[in-house]
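Quick review question:
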């Protein structure tokens, strides 16, 4: 017998972070190639929770990578590679899942690059 996931007990009032959802959009670079830009396609209310932190040396200094879980109401247009924007902060979606398999919420594992 298959085991069902426990129903997520999330108060929708905890979705207090207003985020802009952006998708990749290739933009011509004028030399026959393309650069990846991002275009806004939705605004969502979400809960942002930091999960982990890592630091590595790159070029002239250290770069910090912070991992977050971003919980929001379920949407059919979410995909890895998209990102959330909150002001100057960017959260790149690494993976998505339905935390309790009810279709009510989506849980995005995101990486924020700092530094």
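Suggested answer, residue by residue:
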């Amino acid at each position: 017998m298959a085991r069902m996931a426990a129903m997520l007990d999330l108060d929708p009032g905890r979705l207090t972070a207003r985020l802009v959802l952006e998708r990749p959009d290739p933009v011509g670079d004028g030399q026959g190639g393309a650069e990846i830009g991002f275009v806004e396609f939705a605004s969502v209310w979400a809960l942002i929770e930091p999960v982990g932190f890592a630091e590595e040396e790159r070029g002239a200094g250290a770069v910090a990578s912070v991992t977050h879980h971003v919980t929001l109401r379920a949407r059919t247009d979410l995909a890895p590679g998209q990102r959330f924007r909150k002001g100057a902060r960017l959260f790149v979606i690494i993976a998505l899942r339905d935390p309790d398999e009810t279709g009510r919420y989506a849980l995005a594992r995101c990486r924020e690059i700092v530094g």
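Why it works: The mean pLDDT is 88. The beta strands are 17-28, 34-58, 61-73, 83-86, 89-97, 105-114.
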